[in-house]
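Technical annex B. To support the medicinal chemistry partners, we prepared a structural model of the target in complex with flavin-adenine dinucleotide, based solely on the information shown next.
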Amino acid sequence: MDFKLTPEEEAFRDEVRAFVKEHLSEDARKDPNFIGNWLKAVREKRWVGFNWPEEYGGGGGGIMEQVILKEEMSKAGAPPLGTSMMGLQWVGPAIIEYGTEEQKKKFLPDILDSAYQWCTGYSEPGSGSDLASLQCRAVRDGDEYVVNGQKIWTSGAAYSKWIILLTRTDFEVEDRHKGITCLLVEMDSPGVEVRPIKNMAGSSHFAEVFFEDVRVPVENRLGEEGQGWGVTISALAHERSGISEVAGLISQHHQLVELAKRTQKDGKPASEHPGIRARLARADAIIEGMRLNGQRFLTKQLKGEKLSSETSINKLHRAFLAVELGDLALEIQGSASQYAESTNGADGAGGEDEGRWVNGALGWPAVVIGGGTPNIQRNIIAERILGLPKD
Ligand SMILES: Cc1cc2nc3c(=O)[nH]c(=O)nc-3n(C[C@H](O)[C@H](O)[C@H](O)COP(=O)(O)OP(=O)(O)OC[C@H]3O[C@@H](n4cnc5c(N)ncnc54)[C@H](O)[C@@H]3O)c2cc1C
């Protein structure tokens, strides 16, 4: 891979930098409608879904420009380009790859406009890591499927309008992966019930979702009947690809270094403690490894090849870093790290950066477990990349 940008790519990077400077200035951020203005401006630029086809409202941009865009946005600490996170990250790409013309016209512009939220109905009480064992049943009845079953850990279910749902349509097939079908289901369909679950940080980010005789039009099937596993593998590869995440990690690491420099520990800046320096350096080396690995994914994509198992490598490192950076931030701050807000200590002490580090440390399961646990990533790397035997 050639790491140098072409003159056109450099010009695009400069355009993004100028845009960011104008739209993320201190004045712009003070505007009460800052987020609304921001979403409108990036949408007008066609930078939301920048590499999606133009006929469905995307930017029709190249993969390289997409990467430049994400990196520059991340460096500038920009808000997301849309509020439909799952829609943009994997539902939209799955619809582009597997959807019918009608589905593309119906869903893609709404995702780009952040019109509503999507959630993902894969996991079930007995099927998490071993997703292919899923039991939520969809039975064809004329022009509809009738869905019965339960999903769990469904992020954003309480405020989503649609769910991308994996169901079993064939219980007889020998290969379990072949009897799975993906449906797009409206969350306010009769028979759908959402029961929020509270996590250890106190928020109800995810939920259990129950389906009782829910009727879903066949036109809302994504891909062919029995092809749901392929749709999911593609969607999970998008979830795990993480090129943009690396830019976010670089910025998080940078902020952690700043935190260590300005926090006093045993009478000197925390950044001067050898143990803390070593951990910061180790994290930096891993992030750099992830960045270079991201370039490998990028090279593959630029050659028109699909991403698959290799994205598990960065997903695994990301899991380690979620715990390590969270722990390190708490250690640097010492007892002040226990404050979740900036000025709530009786002695005037408070958590740094509005308590974001302690909240980040409490949020590690979201990054470590969501999208597949570390052990599962290790299995994927061992079997599909290194070709090690399964037993
Ligand atoms: C914050 C968060 C958000 C989530 N959001 C969603 C969502 O929006 N939609 C959704 O569908 N799901 C979601 N999930 C669920 C997530 O995908 C599952 O929790 C995950 O796949 C693990 O499944 P499980 O919880 O059933 O654990 P299990 O599969 O029971 O695993 C338990 C332990 O056993 C290990 N293990 C299991 N099988 C093997 C094996 N073959 N080899 C080695 N070790 C193994 C695992 O690594 C883990 O440590 C979310 C989870 C979290 C934490």
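Notes passed to the chemistry partners:
Strands lie at 118-121, 137-141, 144-155, 162-168, 180-186, 192-197, 206-217, 221-222, 264-265, 268-269.
Residues 342-349 have pLDDT under 50 and may be disordered.
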